[in-house]
Design goal:
Layout (H helix, E strand, L loop, with lengths): L7 H18 L6 H24 L10 H15 L6 H31 L7 H20 L2 H4 L2 H18 L5 H28 L1
């Protein structure tokens, strides 16, 4: 069978159709996943901040482990959604799969070295999580050509580098970091999620 060679115009149209299909496939509304993660994380950040603030106990920082629980739950829900999977969908999925492994590897590296040196401190997970999440959102935005997903993560990168700089200088993190973490998700996830949903409704 002779393969049809697509013209440049046909290729661009095909890519455009795949991008539009991918935007629809990200959820019933394109910004749903952003809102799920944004609201869950920002509320969790505020809750942990308040618990530490009023109990003066850092034990509540372990509440961040709920992120892994929510990650597993969202993965299960996403798997059950029946949508047409495009090449771009697979590409985005692979991007987040790699980032997911980066989360897991970072966690275990911190845990192992903590056990070796007798001092487990997972505070490094916070700035690195901002870096990983920000990269994932920006890369996804570039792939689907959505500016509101490309540039807001710059705030997450800024907060990440601030946290790393503080660790290098003072070797100490404060409860304020929880609020900054939540703020980054408001800007990077919640605001873009609502804007993307609004744009989707206008197009419909």
């Amino acid at each position: 069978m002779e393969e049809k060679v697509l013209t440049e115009k046909e290729s661009l149209e095909l890519i455009s159709q795949m991008i539009q299909a991918t935007k629809k496939n990200r959820a019933v509304s394109p910004g749903k996943e952003l809102l799920y993660w944004g609201y869950f994380t920002s509320i969790l950040a505020l809750t942990i901040y308040l618990l530490i603030r009023f109990t003066s106990s850092g034990i509540w920082s372990w509440g961040w482990m709920l992120m892994f629980v929510f990650w597993g739950f969202s993965f299960f829900v996403h798997k059950r959604e029946k949508t047409v999977v495009t090449y771009i969908d697979k590409t985005i999925g692979q991007v987040w799969q790699v980032l997911g492994w980066m989360f897991v590897i970072t966690f275990w590296v911190v845990a192992i070295f903590g056990a070796i040196y007798g001092r487990e401190d997972f505070i490094l997970m916070m700035p690195l999580s901002l870096l990983y999440c920000g990269l994932g959102i920006s890369i996804t935005g570039i792939i689907v050509r959505e500016p509101w997903m490309i540039y807001p993560p710059l705030l997450s990168f800024t907060i990440c580098f601030y946290m790393l700089q503080v660790l290098v200088i003072s070797h100490y993190a404060t409860n304020l970091w929880n609020l900054l973490f939540g703020l980054s998700f408001v800007v990077t996830y919640i605001i873009p999620g609502h804007i993307i949903n609004k744009k989707s409704k206008v197009k419909c």
